[in-house]
Design the sequence.
């Protein structure tokens, strides 16, 4: 029989798990935000390589996005986690320092960022392609350096085209942080599972965590819509 | 909520003669890269430890089968569920519309892993409390993990595909429906003969991308003790203490699976008459 649900388990202080849940939630947001930013950097590099790079660079970028799109995120995260920590330890050893323990946050951000980068590359590539070439040629005709063309013309002009795709990627980033629970990062999903297992109140805790995720998605949705409206000022209505 | 689907529809490639198709692969830098890849492959095969492979091969085969069965069944059931979810959001009465919309928003707004654990641990614990359920013929199945994995994957696919179906139902040109009405078809017949088939047809190009995404979601069921491909490889890694070899094999298998699926789905898509 179902007993009455004991909401005091969600209290913020010690017998309750609310504080631990909120800390895990913060951790998830940090991981998602860090990974998303890293993904944007990788995505810009990847898109530049695909559009302006030489043959070899272009092929390498293609292989990277192929790998990211064809292999499950969970497997990729496992791979990047082990390869990343191994590489860093070898690097430190070759520099004559002893192996360091990478703290969980940067490892998680790295792993999420590498996955996000693959999708961001595709989003940015499409967006840069949508910028009328005449605008870029005009900037070049003014004698701007390639970097300045990118900063002053290409990036601002492609932003409205990239925003819908990047909004999707933010949603995916927040949800992908949950996968880190499988590798053992103590973010919201793992903390929730621990709390639920300790108290045997599975529905209470998983639904509470689900509401936190949902709140994050819905609130960032509002923000992203506002950003999109702002970026599209002066452009014809979306097709 | 913006559409989560970020996979652009794949258009069937025009048939080229074999030499024209091979030409891009024979560019000098690609030959060098292929040689490097072959060398890396040779190094992986000869230098790394693969002695475990023959022992575990039957288990890996079984895991692959579990993954494929889960993928196929959840896609089929999820698609069947997505059709009413999409239709109701466009034409249904308000309470049903809100319900379907809320379902899609909640499923798409929370991580799949959380849903999986909620359903497995939550429902599992709930069912165990009822003697009636424990005594029923269903109990031997409900004690296993795969029904929960199947249920979660199905609901997830239904929500994402339902959102796509909503767009597909809404996107059928008004004129076609009006033409059907003008022929004197009753509402139900309009739905059955025109609206429904046209909507499914419009949604087909995105289906390939959604199925690949679903394939990439299946390894999560390993966390609730379903022995799919990923779970078998995890087991190998725990038994042999090898970090990279099983992982590399796993990635290779998933790459092959995604590639094969893409090719098969593209071929299927080419066989569907486009009407243009």
Sequence:
């Amino acid at each position: 029989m179902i007993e009455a649900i004991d909401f005091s388990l969600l209290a913020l202080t010690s017998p309750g798990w609310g504080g631990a849940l909120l800390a895990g939630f913060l951790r998830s947001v940090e991981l998602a935000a860090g990974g998303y930013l890293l993904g944007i950097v990788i995505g810009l590099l990847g898109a530049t390589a695909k559009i302006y790079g030489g043959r070899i660079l272009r092929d390498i970028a293609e292989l990277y996005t192929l790998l990211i799109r064809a292999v499950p995120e969970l497997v990729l995260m496992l791979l990047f986690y082990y390869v990343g920590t191994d590489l860093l330890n070898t690097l430190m050893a070759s520099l004559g320092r002893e192996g360091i323990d990478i703290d969980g946050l940067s490892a998680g951000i790295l792993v999420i960022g590498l996955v996000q980068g693959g999708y961001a590359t595709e989003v940015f590539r499409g967006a840069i392609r949508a910028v009328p070439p005449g605008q870029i040629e005009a900037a070049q005709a003014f004698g701007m350096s390639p970097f300045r063309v990118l900063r002053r013309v290409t990036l601002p002009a492609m932003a409205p085209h990239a925003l819908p795709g990047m909004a999707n990627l933010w949603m995916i980033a927040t949800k992908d942080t949950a996968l880190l629970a499988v590798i053992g990062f103590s973010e919201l999903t793992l903390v929730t599972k621990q709390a639920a297992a300790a108290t045997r109140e599975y529905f209470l805790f998983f639904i509470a965590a689900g509401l936190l995720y949902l709140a994050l998605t819905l609130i960032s949705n509002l923000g992203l819509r506002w950003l999109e409206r702002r970026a599209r000022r002066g452009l014809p209505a979306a097709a | 909520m913006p559409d989560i689907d970020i996979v652009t529809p794949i258009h069937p490639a025009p048939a080229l003669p074999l030499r024209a198709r091979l030409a891009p692969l024979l560019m000098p830098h690609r030959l060098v890269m292929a040689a490097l890849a072959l060398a890396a492959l040779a190094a992986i095969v000869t230098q790394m430890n693969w002695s475990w492979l023959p022992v575990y091969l039957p288990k890996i085969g079984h895991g692959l089968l579990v993954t494929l069965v889960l993928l196929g069944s959840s896609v089929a059931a999820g698609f069947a569920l997505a059709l009413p979810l999409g239709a109701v959001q466009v034409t249904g009465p308000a309470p049903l519309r809100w319900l379907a919309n809320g379902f899609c928003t909640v499923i798409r707004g929370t991580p799949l892993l959380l849903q999986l654990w909620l359903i497995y641990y939550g429902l599992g614990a709930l069912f165990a409390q009822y003697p009636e359920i424990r005594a029923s013929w269903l109990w031997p199945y409900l004690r296993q993990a795969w029904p929960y994995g199947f249920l979660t994957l199905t609901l997830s696919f239904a929500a994402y595909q339902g959102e796509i179906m909503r767009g597909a139902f809404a996107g059928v040109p008004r004129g076609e429906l009006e033409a059907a009405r003008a022929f004197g078809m009753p509402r139900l017949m309009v739905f059955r003969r025109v609206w429904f088939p046209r909507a499914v047809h419009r949604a087909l190009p995105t289906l390939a991308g959604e199925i690949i995404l679903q394939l990439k979601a299946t390894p999560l069921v390993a966390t609730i003790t379903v022995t799919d491909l990923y779970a078998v490889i995890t087991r190998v890694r725990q038994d042999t203490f090898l970090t990279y070899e099983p992982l590399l094999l796993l990635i290779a298998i998933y790459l092959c699976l995604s590639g094969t699926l893409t090719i098969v789905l593209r071929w299927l898509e080419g066989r569907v008459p486009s009407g243009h």
Observations:
- Confidence is low (pLDDT under 50) at residues 1-10 of chain B.
- The two ends of chain B are 32 Å apart (CA to CA).
- Chain B touches chain A through 45 residues (CB under 8 Å).
